[in-house]
Specification:
The complex is a heterodimer.
Chain A: H1 8-16, H2 51-59, E1 72-77, E2 80-86, E3 91-95, H3 96-102, H4 120-127, E4 133-137, E5 147-153, E6 159-168, E7 173-182, E8 189-199, E9 204-212, E10 217-227, E11 232-239, E12 245-248, E13 251-254, E14 260-269, E15 274-277, E16 280-283, E17 289-298, E18 302-311, E19 317-326, E20 332-341, E21 347-355, H5 359-366, H6 372-384, H7 393-410
Parallel strand pairs in A: 1-5, 4-6, 5-7, 6-8, 7-9, 8-10, 9-11, 10-12, 10-13, 11-14, 12-15, 13-16, 14-17, 15-18, 16-18, 17-19, 18-20, 19-21
Antiparallel strand pairs in A: 1-2, 3-4
Chain B: E1 2-11, E2 14-24, E3 29-33, H1 40-48, E4 53-62, E5 65-66, H2 72-78, E6 80-83, E7 90-94, H3 95-103, H4 109-118, E8 128-129, H5 135-149, E9 153-157, H6 165-178, E10 191-195, E11 209-214, E12 217-222, H7 224-234, H8 236-241
Helix pairs in contact in B: 3-5, 5-6
Classes of the chains: A alpha/beta, B alpha/beta.
Chain lengths: 411, 244
């Protein structure tokens, strides 16, 4: 738990919003989940974590046995940070509780990118004095390898609360890989996570998040991003495993000129999974640009794929692309692309398509000698492959591998 | 050898081809002429085995095997390949993936790179197949896949349509490679059946026999250049009058 309390005004706002249902998604009863978990010892050497936990973390891109390809590591088990370390000078990785003790100025970032009273989940995180990670790149510093973090839910029927802050100071470059996963394959659990990103002038952040839940989990991430002049935020989100109920709709606010945001997401919904995901971008400064690309595939579950771009400044440009593929009769995909332009001379566009695999395409591949199954698998693999511009090659390869591993199970 | 005996083909319940008889000997290439809608593409699609093209009567024999009831992929693996007139765009599937699929393990990345160089498509390997390709690029991409597949019988549906004059020579060269035209006739195995509207491609490829198709039937068979000259002069109406 955090030792440093945030200002009373946040607590008041949080209390006022404690029962406020979110505007989207099923209303989750937080009280139905446990609040307390056993204290976990700090683990100076994360390679000594139990093999099963390490294996699950590895599936979400978190490598603990050999951290030579990582600039830093943060691991949270249930509600307790159990390891944090940085391997590169100028890159800070610590628990939020520690960062709040160290930096008075952190209060200036507190609940600025996400409002504390957004809904009962953000309020709960404040009221529980939740810990989380603090990752910061000092001015001009660039990560050689990504920083990794893992939010691991070990205890069954627990509400995991996380509050993260990521700061990329001016002209820095930060690559983050984060994996969120759960120990049990079937026990219910609730994951609540607030992530606030601050991308300063000329800074670049790539954030690659791989989720791996179970069919009983409810998940409510709340993410806000503020991007200054010439800053770049690139988010990649992958969820290819079952989840009972996920609702997330990150908001990126381009407040600086020529700020750029890209959201890529790859979602696969097995039967009984319900995923309501989206990305929102506000183009509030001259020359700001965004691209939102989502691939949604259902083998029986429901996906709501939202996208929202708002243009409020001259010469802004935004494109939204949502493609959905329904592989089984019972699956459902609801694409909701929205554009709002409030100025002449802006350029916003979208394309959305939902359907099954075209028979003509399958037969085209079969005419080259592939069986029907091979042809379908090739098309699905192609569908889920998102060309990601801006990721370091090694990270792009890791991400691609994670997607391919999940595809094998799918096919 | 390919032999088609008394073939009737229906599309969505409507009979399109009637009593088609045709024989392509080992190492031979034949051309198929005919006006739009006469059934040329239907014949190629039926030989390839696309389910939409239903054989209601007759047989298709390939390499002494009755393939009339075989699936598309089985025919492809048996050695039949097709260059589509208008292949579909498959978003996300790269040109490289298509070539790799066509190779079926008979080559590696280097083989793919060489094929791309031969077809002048090096910059297209990592693009979605056929997405935003020009007419000529589509045809070359089709031929690149066929060169990887190495079929014994190549079905070519208007390989020159939409191709500019500079590219047509390259297309001709690639087809000649596919059909092993540089091999002596005695050792040549590959066969071809080429639909051509304009006949331009025949300036590059040596074709032994030509057929004229009208209203779903083959009405004439003979020297392809003679047929072409006659069609150019008198049109297909003359073919209709002079059914032999």
């Amino acid at each position: 738990m955090r030792k440093v309390k945030s200002s009373p005004s946040y607590k008041e706002k949080a209390r006022a919003a404690a029962a406020k249902a979110a505007s989207l998604g099923e209303d989750i009863d937080i009280a139905a989940f446990g609040a307390e978990a056993e204290a976990q010892p700090y683990q100076a050497d994360p390679s000594k974590l139990p093999a099963q936990a390490k294996k699950q973390m590895l599936e979400t891109g978190v490598i603990l046995d050999d951290n030579s390809q990582r600039s830093g590591t943060y691991i949270q088990m249930d509600n307790m940070p159990i390891h944090y370390s940085s391997r590169q000078e100028g890159i800070e990785v610590m628990a939020m509780s520690q960062a709040l003790e160290k930096y008075d100025w952190l209060a200036d970032y507190w609940w600025r990118a996400v409002a504390v009273d957004t809904d009962k989940y953000t309020a709960h995180i404040e009221l529980k004095d939740s810990d989380g990670y603090f990752i910061r790149a000092l001015p001009g510093k660039k990560t050689v390898y990504p920083v990794q973090s893992c939010l691991y839910l070990a205890k069954a029927k627990l509400a995991q609360n996380v509050h993260n802050i990521i700061i990329a100071e001016e002209n820095s470059e930060l690559h983050i890989v984060t994996g969120c996963t759960v120990a049990s394959g079937k026990e219910p659990g609730l994951h609540l996570g607030v992530s606030e990103f601050y991308i300063k002038k000329g800074a670049k952040v790539t954030f690659t998040m791989i989720h791996s839940w179970n069919p009983e989990m409810a998940v409510r991430p709340r993410t806000g991003v503020i991007i200054e002049d010439n800053g770049l935020f690139l988010s990649n989100y992958v969820l290819m495993k079952p989840v009972r109920s996920l609702q997330t709709n990150p908001l990126a606010d381009c407040i600086g000129e020529n700020a750029t945001v890209r959201f890529n997401s790859v979602l696969v919904a097995p039967p009984d999974s319900h995923m309501d995901t989206g990305s929102r971008v506000l183009l509030n400064a001259k020359g700001a640009k965004t691209e939102i690309i989502s691939r949604a595939l259902t083998t029986g579950g429901t996906i709501i794929a939202r996208g929202y771009i708002e243009g409020n400044a001259p010469d802004v440009k935004g494109h939204l692309e949502c493609r959905g593929l329904i592989l089984e009769e019972k699956g459902s995909i609801h694409a909701i692309p929205e554009l709002e332009g409030n100025l002449a001379g802006i350029d916003l566009s979208h394309e959305a398509a939902v359907g099954k695999i075209a028979e003509e395409e399958v037969e085209y591949l079969m005419a080259r000698g592939l069986t029907r199954n091979e042809a379908t698998a090739t098309i699905v693999r192609g569908f889920l492959h998102v060309d990601i511009v801006g990721l370091p090659p090694q990270l792009a390869a890791e991400l691609q591998k994670a997607v391919e591993d999940s595809e094998k199970e799918l096919m | 050898m390919l032999e088609i005996k008394g073939l009737n083909v229906a599309v969505e319940g409507k009979e399109i081809l009637k009593d088609i008889n045709l024989k392509i000997g080992t190492g031979e290439s034949h051309a198929l002429f005919g006006p739009n809608g006469s059934g040329k593409t239907t014949l190629l699609m039926a030989i390839m085995g696309f389910p939409r093209y239903q054989v209601t009567k007759g047989k298709i024999i390939f390499k002494d095997k009755d393939i009339t009831r075989l699936g598309v992929d089985e025919r492809a693996r048996l050695g039949i390949g097709i260059s589509f007139q208008r292949p579909p765009v498959v978003r996300g599937v790269k040109t490289r993936d298509m070539v790799s699929a066509s190779l079926r393990g008979r080559g590696d990345e280097k083989t793919i790179a060489q094929l791309a160089e031969r077809t002048d498509l090096t910059d297209f390997l990592d693009r979605d197949i056929n997405y935003g390709f020009s007419g000529g690029e589509i045809k070359r991409a089709e031929l690149m896949q066929l060169l990887a597949q190495k079929p014994e019988l190549t079905l070519l549906d208007e390989p020159e349509s939409g191709v500019d004059l500079v590219n047509i020579a390259l297309i001709g060269k690639l087809i000649n490679e596919l059909l092993e035209k540089d091999c002596p006739i005695r050792t040549r195995k590959c066969m071809g059946l080429i639909i051509t509207h304009t006949g331009h491609i025949l300036e590059y490829i040596n074709v032994r026999t030509g057929y004229v198709m009208l209203n779903g039937s083959i009405v004439c068979q003979g020297d392809p250049h003679e047929i072409l000259a006659s069609v150019k002069e008198k049109g297909y109406e003359e073919c209709a009058r002079c059914v032999r």
